[in-house]
């Protein structure tokens, strides 16, 4: 996904003279093409993320369209005050892109995990919060975010994630994207971890001939409430939420709250799959930790099989 981000930024650099890219001392070679086209509009702000966020705010309030990029926890929890006061309070046109979200840097431990960023940033009024599941969704969200007024936060993976969504023509911020259609179980989630859901869905079809619907919510703020209303009227036995993020402030808690406020009586179970509310000190690759935390396709398969 980060290579897609670099490619899209290069296109923006050609098309728009107001786009500026600010980096927190990472991905410098990745942005070589951008720097060839617009060397004066690439700024390596070094390991000074809070300062970078304030610089971006000033640029936006001066009429530019800054895009800020570095590793997610350094861009979110470290810079919360600068995002709150410098960007959200002024409704500044800044796009904040956090790379390596969730457990993408699993082997580097809690300093590099971002399992609370959505919860923290969703307390700020007016901040769009997006979490694409693949490069196709990321490309569409970047283009649309640049056309909107106000700030946007996009949390992305790292590299090598497969494309999952089926129809990029209908991709739009605030609307779900279909990954796989089905009518027995519904899985809704965010981010590249939806690849685990798709694998579980395919295995359920192969073993039990049951159809699991898998969708990417794409955005948390705004949430696609019309889709949720539509799904309530269907005959799913279970809704499963899936995210590489903690429960507090995450997708699971937001959908649970929506159900409490909008559905008086429901005939389906709800299961929230997310990371536990504790620091994860085991080290290993992302796939290893997903298995340890029962967020991999095998764990999802075992949950679904109880309903088929």
Secondary-structure element order, N to C: HEHEHEHHEHEHEEEHEEHEHEHH
Low-confidence stretches: none
What is the CA–CA distance across the termini? Answer: 34 Å
Number of continuous helical runs: 12
Layout of helices and strands:
Blueprint (H helix, E strand, L loop, with lengths): L1 H14 L3 E5 L8 H6 L4 E3 L4 H13 L3 E7 H4 L4 H9 L6 E5 L17 H5 L6 E3 L4 H13 L4 E4 L21 E4 L4 E5 L4 H15 L3 E5 L2 E3 L3 H8 L5 E9 L4 H12 L6 E7 L10 H7 L4 H9 L3
Parallel strand pairs: 1-2, 1-3, 3-4, 4-6, 5-6, 8-9, 8-11, 11-12
Antiparallel strand pairs: 5-10, 7-9
What does this structure look like?
This protein is of the alpha/beta class. The strands form two sheets. The protein has a seven-stranded mixed β-sheet with strand order 2-1-3-4-6-5-10, sandwiched between helices. Strands 7-9-8-11-12 form a five-stranded mixed β-sheet, sandwiched between helices. It is globular and about 60 Å long. 37% of the residues lie in helices and 19% in strands.
Descriptive tags:
seven-stranded mixed β-sheet; 12 strands; 37% helix; 19% strand
Summarize the structure.
The chain has 308 residues and is an alpha/beta fold. The protein has twelve helices and twelve strands.
């Amino acid at each position: 996904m980060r290579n897609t981000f670099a490619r899209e930024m290069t296109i923006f650099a050609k098309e728009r003279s107001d786009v500026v890219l600010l980096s927190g001392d990472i991905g410098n070679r990745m942005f070589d093409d951008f720097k060839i086209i617009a060397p004066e509009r690439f700024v390596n702000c070094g390991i000074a993320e809070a300062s970078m966020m304030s610089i971006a705010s000033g640029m936006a309030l001066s009429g530019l369209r800054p895009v800020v990029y570095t590793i997610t926890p350094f861009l979110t929890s470290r810079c919360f005050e600068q995002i709150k006061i410098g960007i959200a309070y002024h409704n500044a046109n800044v796009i904040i892109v956090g790379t390596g979200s969730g457990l993408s840097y699993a082997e580097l431990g809690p300093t590099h995990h971002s399992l609370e960023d959505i919860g923290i940033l969703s307390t700020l009024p007016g901040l769009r919060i997006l979490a694409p599941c693949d490069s196709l969704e990321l490309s569409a969200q970047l283009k649309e975010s640049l056309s909107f007024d106000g700030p946007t936060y996009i949390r992305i993976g790292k590299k090598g994630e497969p494309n999952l969504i089926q129809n990029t023509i209908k991709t739009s911020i605030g609307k779900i994207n279909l990954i796989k259609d089905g009518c027995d179980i519904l899985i809704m989630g965010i981010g590249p971890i939806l690849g685990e859901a798709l694998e579980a869905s395919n295995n359920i079809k192969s073993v039990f001939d049951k159809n699991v619907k898998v969708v990417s919510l794409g955005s948390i703020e705004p949430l696609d409430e019309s889709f949720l209303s539509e799904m309530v009227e269907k005959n799913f036995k279970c809704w499963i939420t899936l995210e590489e993020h903690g429960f507090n402030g995450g997708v699971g808690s937001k959908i649970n709250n929506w159900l409490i406020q909008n559905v008086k009586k429901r005939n389906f179970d709800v299961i929230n799959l997310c990371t536990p509310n504790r620091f994860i000190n085991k080290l290993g690759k992302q796939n290893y930790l997903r298995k340890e935390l029962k967020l991999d396709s095998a764990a999802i398969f075992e949950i679904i099989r109880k309903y088929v």
